[in-house]
Every structure is written in structure tokens, then in C-alpha cells.
């Protein structure tokens, strides 16, 4: 039996995010103009953005080339529900990171924790925004289009 095969929905890859590497904010492409990845099963593609990991500070959980999917519930600020979780963040200097976010020494400052014990943590960092990683896809599973 033959039928029409519909194209699978895709999610834009906004750019790269640093896991130890210093990566400028990852909105490297005009909206919808950059590479795309097939939407992973079970994940809605509405409002979801993907970024590619660069660096090894989040090993062994996230490796260079892996894709992280997230949704920003707010365009500015750090929601309370992201504290203690692995997040995609933008710091006040415009750098993009993937780190575990913890409260800093005073309100408005955050500690960015690396999972790799040989990597450096960042303390008392001002963040423009933070969003929890919703899904992690190892590089070998990602189907870029």
C-alpha cells in the first residue's frame, strides 16, 4: 500500500553553546535560516530550540557535538524552577553556556557548575536568562537536515 510520506517536523539549531569553551551567544543564524534537526520522538517542536555543545566541561553527561533542546518560558531572567538543574544560559557578557545553575552569594548572581571534575566552575555570574535542558541527544542520533 502506497501513501504520501509527510516530511518530519524539524527544529532549528540556533548555534553552539559552551561547555568550557567560550562561545558567543548562540543565536548565530537568522530565525529559521540555520541548520535543522529532525524533531525527536515525543518532543513537541513548538517553541523548542536546539543548540550544539562545544567543549568538555559537562562530560560525561554532555559531549562536544551533542544537541540540547530547550524552551525559554521567559525572554529575560532566571526562573526559580531552573535552580539546581542543567540549563542553557546566556551570561551578561553575551556568552552562551550549558551548566548546572545554582544560587550565587547574593540575589541576581549565580554559580555555573561543570559536571566534569577537571573543569572550572564559574561563581557569582550575572545571567540574562536561563532555560532548563528538556532533552539531550547524543551527536550520533541527531539527524540534521
From TrEMBL:
All residue ranges annotated as the Peptidase S24/S26A/S26B/S26C domain in the record: 15-123
CDD domains in alphabetical order: Peptidase_S24_S26 (cd06462)
Domain of life the protein comes from: Bacteria
Protein name per the record: Peptidase S24/S26A/S26B/S26C domain-containing protein
Native source species: Salipiger bermudensis (strain DSM 26914 / JCM 13377 / KCTC 12554 / HTCC2601) (Pelagibaca bermudensis)
